[in-house]
Description:
- It contains ten helices and eight strands.
- By secondary structure, it is of the alpha/beta class.
- It has one domain (about 5-249): Rossmann fold.
- The mean pLDDT is about 90.
Amino acid sequence: MPDARGALLAIASGKGGVGKTWLAVTLAHALARSGRRVLLVDADFGLANVDVQLGLMPEVDLSSVLAGRSTLPAAVLRHAEGFDILPGRSGAVGLASLPVGVLEGLLADLRGLARAYDFVLLDLGSGLDAAMRHLAASTDGLIVVTTEEPTALTDAYAVLKLHAQDGAGHMPVHVVVNQAASPASGQRIFATLAQACDRFLGTAPDLLGIVRRDERVRDAIRRQMPLLLRHPTTPAARDAEAIAAALAA
Length: 249
């Protein structure tokens, strides 16, 4: 009998400041608005901020689960916009320090929980330490977020290289170019990254989408509101909805 569970997708970046968490939140919201059941997992223990971006103050979080003080389902919050959140805790012990058995137990619990959802989105920490790499390689697909900045592009390539070395080449790997000056500029950035991957790794990721630079993203984050609620018709909102539609297709 096939494993009837939702898709477990990791969202990663090589460096901070590229809008990875914002994209994870916005995709979760967009997928929920399209009728999908979505769980967003904040797996960035060092700088967990899904709860901050959404103005939440959770009493129980992922660190409580890993410490044995809560079960995974009990730590899940329901957002008013129709998607669920498993919050992390900023400054908590890093996943890298967890025993392998604990990490595997977390993955098993997430796979079990995924049976109640269409999509489970894991917002990984920036960069990929050993534990994050293991999580990424254990999912059904990887989304790497980058921008037009040369350092962001270099770090995105490093993430893709490590992911390939981890033997995860069989799974879908996608790229989102965020904060692009224009769709054409985003296409050029992706082409540069894909060419490097094809030349040196023997495989290239797919372009999942391009999100245009939009100052109203900052406003939504400052207001601790999802962009699709605060500014639903802004270019970045439309771009994120197009990416969600591509995932759900």
